[in-house]
């Protein structure tokens, strides 16, 4: 299993954006723990939200996520509701891909996600 850690200026605020689109917050370490980290998940997919400090130089922050797309599959019976939950984040329209999956794309916290039905 791959579980990416996405560098965010504020992982707690970024987690709220994910949560607003229907993602679950699995755990959240307190800021004073010295390891500010939040785990969020959608269906059986989870990612960690970490900090930029110490990992990304200030002049590189605007390029975070550039050229990377996280491909996430969700159950077919949940796909429409998940899409509706992401519309407020300016999700693209649903498209049938040449490989037969239905997908949409959405930017969350500066990162691009392609969410697909299984």
UniProtKB/TrEMBL annotation:
It comes from the Bacteria. This is Glyoxalase/bleomycin resistance protein/dioxygenase superfamily protein.
């Amino acid at each position: 299993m791959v579980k990416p850690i996405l560098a965010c200026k504020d992982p707690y605020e970024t987690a709220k954006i994910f949560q607003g689109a229907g993602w679950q917050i699995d755990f959240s370490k307190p800021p004073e723990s010295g390891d500010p980290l939040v785990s969020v998940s959608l269906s059986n997919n989870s990612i960690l939200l970490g900090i930029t400090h110490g990992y990304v130089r200030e002049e590189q922050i605007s390029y975070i996520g550039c050229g990377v797309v996280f491909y996430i599959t969700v159950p077919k019976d949940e796909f429409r509701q998940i899409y509706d939950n992401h519309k407020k984040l300016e999700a693209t329209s649903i498209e049938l891909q040449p490989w037969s999956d239905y997908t949409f794309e959405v930017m969350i916290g500066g990162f691009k996600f392609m969410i697909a039905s299984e």
